[in-house]
Amino acid sequence: MSRAAVSYSCGSCGYPLNLTSSDRIASGIGSEYRKSIKNGLISFLSVDLSRFTQVDEVHCFPVSWGRYRLKTKLLCRKCGVHIGYGYGDAPALCGFDSPNSSSAAYKKFTVKIRAVQPSEDFLDCRTDRESFGLTCHRWLNIQNLKRRSLQFPCSFGIVGPSSLSQSCTDISSFHLYRILTRFQHLEYLSFSGCTELTDSALNYLKPYGSRLQTLCLDCCFRISDHGISLVGDGCPSLTTISLYRCNITDTGLEALANTCLALRRVNLAYCPHISDSGLRALSQGCCELQAIKISSCRGVSGVGLRSCSSTLVYIDAECCNLKPEGIMAIVSGGGLKFLNIAGLSCSNFRNGLEAIGNGFAAGLKILSLRMCRSVTDASIVAIAKGCPQLREWNLALCHEVRILGWASIGSNCHNLEKLHVNRCRNLCDQGLQALREGCKRLSVLYMNRNGWISDTAVELFKLYRCNVKIKFEEVMSIGPNWDNLYDDE
């Protein structure tokens, strides 16, 4: 439980009562306090009476006492539900002066536990929410209604050999049924790493998954096209789905494209059975598609993205068997801002990347051509001239880029801030000089020393461009977080 004071609202309508746990009578915590809690009551020193409707109940004592017992019902001012009582003694004769209804007239207030609930702001704290869920059924129901995301212990955020080797919880149809019937307002659900999850378990998404916006099924190896069709039928509001390493085919993608029309982000990395046909269905059916990951999908050439929507701003196609016409298709939408096509080494790409600079990718800001060993100066010149908005460019291990290419980058990439030239065999003193004299906004240069670059050239770069950090380290992956694609707009 957090140490912050808990504020309470009406348990019926949610009206804020300005009632806080810091005003609770705690000096006598012991057997009396436990007895009060057992009876479902909490005592307070003061309350904000402007939040309540008061109904007085007068209990008379003998006239010789000259006093009466003041007991006032406290009702929620908005809905009229009985919240508790205020107690006090006032020096007046029975039947004469009306009782004073100010807070100072009362000695204590008792509130029925079942009549209140923690306020919205307090419920944003997960640990407090869970603690209150153990208190009574009302607060347990509140916890269930407030939960928006759920991730199983076997789920992992970063996929790798270590995460795959971890023991995974077996999620059965019964488990999923209990989860979805309890938490009916989930917007994010992750089964990533639940390798034994089957299609039949996803049947329960149909009656209970209508609010779901994000679903992660990474490494759910037993999920097939039938399971994906169940996801489509049960989750019409889905905007993000991650199917990393799933054994699905184009049939599953077509089912998604026909039912989840609001999809914006799709992760299909390492899905070996998909092809351009499935990508075409997605790009044509999901008109709001913003980001797609197809890394290591060897059956994809890129042509399936031809005439894609201008909303598509993020494409990660590392180590795909892309073709020159596939590159043209990828940039055809005109809205691309991030493109990763690292790993292209085929000889037919010596000049095949010129399509990136033909005008359709003029808004491109981040480009990774890492390990594109066959890319020539002609492609580099075309991209440097045709993509004036480039801010970060990874050319690590691009061995065929020579002086002409480096000079073009220096003279055309006026907005470039980060450049990766690690292990480029043909980067020499003249090439480094061209970068030094151009790229006026450059702030970071990633490089490695090689036999073609002298220490003198490096020191001259540091001298004339002292505002540029030279980092002798290699970054394998660049790009934005695909959940926040427009943060730097």
Automatic annotation (TrEMBL):
Gene Ontology terms: cellular component: SCF ubiquitin ligase complex
Organism from which the protein derives: Hibiscus trionum
Superkingdom classification of source: Eukaryota
PANTHER family to which the protein is assigned, alphabetical: F-BOX PROTEIN YLR352W, PARTNER OF PAIRED, ISOFORM B-RELATED
F-box/LRR-repeat protein 15-like leucin rich repeat domain residues: 221-386
GO terms of biological process kind: SCF-dependent proteasomal ubiquitin-dependent protein catabolic process
A Pfam family hit: At4g08330
Regions annotated as coiled coil: none
Protein name: F-box/LRR-repeat protein 15-like leucin rich repeat domain-containing protein
